[in-house]
Design goal:
single chain; alpha/beta; Dihydrodipicolinate Reductase, domain 2; 10 helices; oxidoreductase activity; Rossmann fold; 15 strands; nine-stranded mixed sheet
Amino acid sequence: MVKAIQIGLGHWGFSWSKEVIPKVPTVEMVGYVDTNPEATQRVQADLGIDPKLCFSSLEDAAKHSDATLALCTLRTEAHYPVVKRCLELGYNVLVEKPFTTTIAQGKELVALAKAQDRVLMVSQNYRHQPAPIAAADLVAEGKFGAFNMVSVDFRRHGPSQGYRYWDMPDPLLADMSIHHFDLMRFVLGDEPVRLSCRTWNPPGSPFRFDPSGVATIEFSKGTVVSYRASWLNSGLVTPWAGEWVMDGAEGQIAWSSRDHFRDKKGPDVLNLLPLDGKPEKVKLRDVKFPDRTGTLNAIAEVLDTGAVPRGFSSGADNLGSLALVQGTILSASRGGDWVELNEILG
């Protein structure tokens, strides 16, 4: 059993408190932290949390609880200072994505976690779904040979679907696309080397910053990913993880994940399209702890057993996904110029 505190009880943090944490039985909550008294009062009133477990500061929680894990579910700009302080206080940390706003900050936190001999994990929850897990397994076993081209499409219409973060910087690349970028690395089992990206803000858009973009990303083994994504697309809605077509020498793997548009809240879908055969719908294995419960369960298992599972999104590993965010933003600012990932990672 891992004892934990949660820091950040706002809109998304409350969702963690209500919908995620109770579903992971190996985690015992011993503290909830937020500087806003209304946030702590809400978890007390709505979730029945003991007021004795609610604190207004991290230092206060550290003095009055024996947690070993800090779950950081705050706004992005607060991730770096809060995670840094948690590591300094000796906590292992699970933090929401993106775990920092710059590569330099990410590297600093990774180094601090190593120096403190603590586990730092980023909640890349899309990895904990049946279709991407199956796709990663198929790629690893060499199904259909080398993959030369992958297309990923994400389509949502924010104004008609309850989106409300109109002033968020880089609402596509930093907040949404990081999920897709992380899945590219996870599924392909490879790292990107260079990319080109263009973004734009359509006329009449409620967004302050660009909600639409396209990118071409080259990976070290030769795979080229064509990525198209938009928060202002009026077409057929895609699942949150997007629609993927992975083209190999002997066939294609087509898959989608997280709320398939044909079956709302329905299952992930993966189909094999062999070059010389009939299409085959693959029966996907159930994931005992899907999505965000998967990330919380994963770090709890690591802390309990010391064994690091395949696909574990450590802070060190997640630097590669953060680099894709920073690289696409940089390329877009340069009008689509090619950016080498080494330039970003340093």
